Amino acid sequence: MAKRRKPMSEINVVPYIDVMLVLLVIFMATAPLLTQGVIVDLPNAPSEPITEQADDPLVVSIRADGALFVNLGIQNADDEGTRVTIYSLEDQAGRILRARPGVPVYVKADHKLDYGTVVRVMSVLQKSGAESVGLITDPPDLVDG
């Protein structure tokens, strides 16, 4: 008569740890790609980072050639957003602001643009119902010397 083996009650977790580490590497590699959007060369300015973490801000990006893009929220941060004209921006932003009052509004403009273009976009956003409009900048490079 053959002796029956006792059932093993331990789970081998090594394969699960290997899978978890592979997923971690994949997420670490793709996370910076998801924060990209419209490629804009932002101006450098010594300003404090935004302390309030807004879930879904309305971001209007202006490229160096003057093209406008509207992007709502960090869920859609991997795409450029919806390309709009200065004439349809008021309607697009107005619909978003009426649906979600109090949503933070930010302008991300290339540093090569003239001041008038940025002010025109900000005034259109104000007409559409934005209470305040923030400007997104890059922190300046600090050089020890």
SSE string, helices as H and strands as E: HEEEHEHE
What gap, in angstroms, lies between the N and C termini? Answer: 85 Å
* Oligomeric assembly: single chain
Characterize the biggest β-sheet.
5 strands, mixed
Give the overall silhouette. elongated
Mean of pLDDT: 77
CATH topology of the domain at 58-135: Nucleotidyltransferase, domain 5
Name of the CATH class of the domain at 58-135: Alpha Beta
Sheet with most strands: strand arrangement: 3-2-1-4-5
Strand content: 5-15%
Specify the CATH architecture of the domain at 58-135.
Answer: 2-Layer Sandwich
Give the helix level as a range of percent: 25-40%
Structural class call reads alpha/beta
Poorly predicted regions:
none
Radius of gyration: 24 Å
Helical region count?
3
- β-strand number: 5
Topology:
Blueprint: H1 14-34, E1 58-62, E2 68-72, E3 82-84, H2 86-99, E4 105-109, H3 115-127, E5 133-135
Parallel strand pairs: 1-4, 4-5
Antiparallel strand pairs: 1-2, 2-3
Helix pairs in contact: 2-3
